[in-house]
Every structure is written in C-alpha cells, then in structure tokens.
Amino acid sequence: MASTSSFAPPKLADFILTERLGSGTYATVYKAYRKGNSREVVAVKVVAKKTLNKASTENLLTEIEILKTVRHPHIVQLKDFQWDADNIYLILEWCSGGDLSRFIRSRRILPESVARRFLQQIACALQFLHERNISHLDLKPQNILLSGCVLKLADFGFAQYMSPWDEKSVLRGSPLYMAPEMVCRRQYDSRADLWSVGVILYGEDALQIGFSVMRLCFLYQLPPGAKVSKDCRDLLLRLLERNPDARITFAEFFTHPFVDMEHMPSADSMEKAKELVLQAVQKDQEGERSSALSLYCSALEHFVPAIHYETDRQRKEALRQKVKQYVSRAEELKALLASDNKRSFEEARSARDVLRGKEREGLLTLIYFNVCFFMPVYCVFLLVRLLFYYFLVISFFFGAFIHLKTKTLVFFLSQKLPRTQLRAQGVDLTSKILQ
C-alpha cells in the first residue's frame, strides 16, 4: 500500500504527503492532500512499526480507540487509519494555525481575556473527556492545535480510560507538565490533567515549575507586576496545588468563575442570546424597564461569545451591528431608570420633609397642650406642697418653744422649793404650767 525511504515521505494510496510538520520518538507528522477533486488537506501521523515496543503498541491502540469514538469541536478528529508492512497511518483533521506553543511564542504574553477564551475551550474538551472517563495525561501547548481561533486537543498517545477512583503508577507525559505525584512516581489519577492545565495557564515559565517540582520546592507565585484578576489568581493557586487531594476537583474547575463555561463561545451562544433578547424586548414593550435592562445585559453576555464563535465575516459584521442596537437600547434604559430613581428619590425626600414637618407640628401641639392643661394643675400641687411644708415648720418651732418653756420653769421652781414639796405639788405645778 505504501513505501518509505529514509528521506522522502512515505507514499499512501489515497493521499499525497508533502512537508513534515514534526516528529517524536515513535511518529512523524506530515501535511497531506487527498487525491482527487476534493484536494482535502489533512495531517497524517506516520508510526514506524519497528520503533514500537509492547507499551507503545498498547498506547497507539488506545489512541486509535479513543479518537475513533470521540467527536468534539475541541478535539482533533481521526478521519481514518491505515497500515502497511512498515507503518501505521493516522489520518487526522488539519489545523492550519499550528500549535499553541508557537502561538504563545509569537506573542510572548497573552492578554488575560485571550487566555481565558483558550482555557474555556480546553475546559470544554476536558469536560467531554471526563464524562467518558478519559484522561489525556500529556497536556501541553505542543499538543494543543489551533484552527483559526479554535483550540483542539491532539496527540492522545498517552491517554487512558480512567474512572475517578482508578489510579496508575506508570510514568506518562512530558516532565515539565507532569503533576508532582507523577514525577515522584507515586500513584496518580485523572487529577494530574488539572495540574497540567495550571502549568499551561501559568504559561511563561514551565521550565522553572518543572525543575521546582523535581526539587519538591515549588511554591506558586506570579511574576512581580503581573496584572492578573482575583479569579485568575485563585484558579492558578488551586490548579498548582502539589497535594492532589487538596487540588481543585474537575467539578469545581468546570464551574469556576474564571473558566465561566456558561458564557464561552459555542454553537449554543446564539440561541441563548436570541431567547434572552426576545424576553428583553417583551419586557421593554410592557414598560418593565428594570427587568428589560437585566435581560438585555444577560443577552449581551451571550452575544459577545456568539460573535467570537461566528466564522463568516458578513454574518459576524451583521451580528455586531445588531448587538450595537441592543447596547444602545440598554444604555437608554439605564439612563431612564437613573432618571426615575432620581425622581423617586426627590419624591421620597419631599415626603420625608412633609413627615418631618408633621412630626414637628405634632410635637409643638403636644407641648402647648401640656402647658395649657397640666401647668395649672402642677402649680396648685406645688402651692399645696409649700403650705404643707410651712405648717410642718411652724409646728416644729411651736413644739420646741413649749418644750423649752417647760424645762425653764421646772428648773426655776426646783431652786425655790424643797424637793419633797416639789414632788407633792408636781401634779398641780404641771397643771399650772400647762395652763
């Protein structure tokens, strides 16, 4: 079916192999064209049989089995596979943008918004694989291809079927992107892919991370002056956790606010946006401005990803113009609501002032009533109380005077009469004194 030479690409019955795109330990990848009128462009992965051992043969068979069964917009499609006496050929989907590693090198550092969009696509592919108990185990920028602005996971040579409770100990993947538990040759599971995602997101210094992990001293920190959002920092910290039991789980990763898969560009973005904008228009017509504004904003959160997902230039431009109209209407509603709120605030303040005036009038009325009604009563009470105190004082002084007079007379008479006579006449004397 095909023949090979040391220098020329192998010959394949239905394809013309041209330039070599890259090579590894067991395989070489070529760009190729399908023979005939279609001239379809594909990538052909050529695996030399003589280089295969038992482990690599099992890996190749697993790769073919996985790629035959999966169909996903963010996973490279296996179109066909063939073999001859010397080689095994995997005919794969062509990705014209090269790999993510080259894309990053050409731009040095990606803006957070671009990194987020790429991460959403990686997360979407991983979610699809995770639901089918498939672990890639060799995630790195070189194995992530671009077709336009769409990322696609490639090279499933180390992929394995792994349930959440399955553990492996065979060393797999690229050392710079391996999870610490793999580098240390301990048991590992599907969470190793999450560490690799963290290293890809960190991006700039995978070599330093790899060497630090080997020295068991890696501590995640961002370069000085790096402008990274709070959500991005949190995700990096949780992905690059040495202890797999403390690392972020797949469920937490897929729902993390930085990943935000709800608003990632996809085929569903347009449908979600249309549904929300129809509800917004209906609420707008009914005069429910607040609800309409909220729905317009929610629709725009899906329209923007829909624009990114659209590949046709004319449709993309038409969509942009439509979105501008919705943005304009949302701004109008926002201004109207602000005006209504200001008017409501002024009315509330006016009502508050009226209530305060009423309260002030009520207080003055109460004071006047107290003065007019209770003051005379209080004055009479004070007068009676003063008269009572006056009577007590007069009584006190009168009693003291009588007591003093009695003592004086008794003393005087005791000096003039004998004691016996004084006793005998005591009753009469007392009577006389009292008279």
TrEMBL record:
One of its GO terms (molecular function) is ATP binding. This is Serine/threonine-protein kinase ULK3. It comes from the Eukaryota. It is found in: Cytoplasm. Belongs to the protein kinase superfamily. The chain crosses the membrane at residues 362-383, 389-413. GO terms for biological process: autophagosome assembly; autophagy of mitochondrion; piecemeal microautophagy of the nucleus; regulation of autophagy; response to starvation; reticulophagy. Its main location: cytoplasm. It catalyses: L-threonyl-[protein] + ATP = O-phospho-L-threonyl-[protein] + ADP + H(+); L-seryl-[protein] + ATP = O-phospho-L-seryl-[protein] + ADP + H(+). Residues 15-259 form the Protein kinase domain. Pfam families: MIT, Pkinase. It is an enzyme of class 2 (transferase). Its EC number is 2.7.11.1. ATP binds at K50. It comes from Oryzias sinensis (Chinese medaka). Keywords: ATP-binding, Autophagy, Cytoplasm, Kinase, Membrane, Nucleotide-binding, Repeat, Serine/threonine-protein kinase, Transferase, Transmembrane, Transmembrane helix. One of its GO terms (cellular component) is phagophore assembly site membrane. SMART domains: MIT (SM00745), S_TKc (SM00220). PANTHER family: SERINE/THREONINE-PROTEIN KINASE UNC-51-RELATED, SERINE_THREONINE-PROTEIN KINASE ULK3. InterPro entries: Atg1-like (IPR045269), Kinase-like_dom_sf (IPR011009), MIT_dom (IPR007330), MIT_dom_sf (IPR036181), Prot_kinase_dom (IPR000719), Protein_kinase_ATP_BS (IPR017441), Ser/Thr_kinase_AS (IPR008271).
